[in-house]
Amino acid sequence: MPLGTIDRTPPPFFRQGPSALTKLSFFSALALFLMVADTRLNVTQPLRAVVATVLHPIERTLLVPVDAWQGGSEYFMGLKRAIGNEEAAKRELAAQAERSLRVEQLAAENLRLRALLELRPSIRVRHQAAQVLYDAPDPFSRKIVIDRGAAQGIVLASPVINEAGVLGQVTRVYPLSSEVTLLGDKDAAIPVLNTRSQQRSAAFGVAGAMELRFMAGNADVQVGDLLATSGVDGVYPPGLPVAKVLSVDRKVDSGFARIVLAPTAQPDGVRHVLVLEPLGVQMPPKPEPVDEVPKPASRKGSRK
Predict the structure, then answer these.
(1) Based on the domain organization, do 170 and 34 belong to the same domain?
(2) CA angle 102, 106, 110 (to 5 degrees)
């Protein structure tokens, strides 16, 4: 085929139409016109409203997974925060409970100390406060250990009292602690005075309680009588509460009555006590006997 007969024009499918510059200019002018018209005249506002209304269900449907993810993460984070807050609240509650118990304990201790201090004006002997450390390890005795010893001036036979009355007597002294034998111990004894009948006697410890011994069967002792220290032993100051008569058994076949006492000061739960100096320590020393000076013999005048 001769070359001159070939059609060199592009087929309709590949035809370009207007040039690219023309299209750019046209569409730029159209965009500028639409922006000015939308800004000034709100021409596209109805169209935008219609499109937004149509697309709203689709948007909500597409946001469901996102909302579910965010809600789930917030739920677990909130659950974690709630668990942490609960643990913090429990710790704070435990701390508050501990403080509350400490406050109650301090309030009870304050009441005991106030009651103990109210006993001081009637005591005219030297004394010092002490704290109970623990009970003595011997299960067959009634003894306690206090935190005052020889270094603090504690001496043997010092009476030990609390706000209710006499607890016992110091029987062993260590450098920094002392052992107190309670009135309920089997080896304890204390002279007492019946505040009603003014009758003197001696109370002895027995199995955690006390009893009056060597009392005649017709002795003037009644249930409910209060016994106090008599002060005749030179150890206990007079007038300190000791015990209360619990029962009186007047045996016919015996010349003595069995009188059971209940100590007024119970050692259980006691934490603070007063240690008194024995009265015998404060008594003035006995004057030493003065040696009699022999009188000089009378001399008669000598004669020279």
Answers:
(1) no
(2) 175
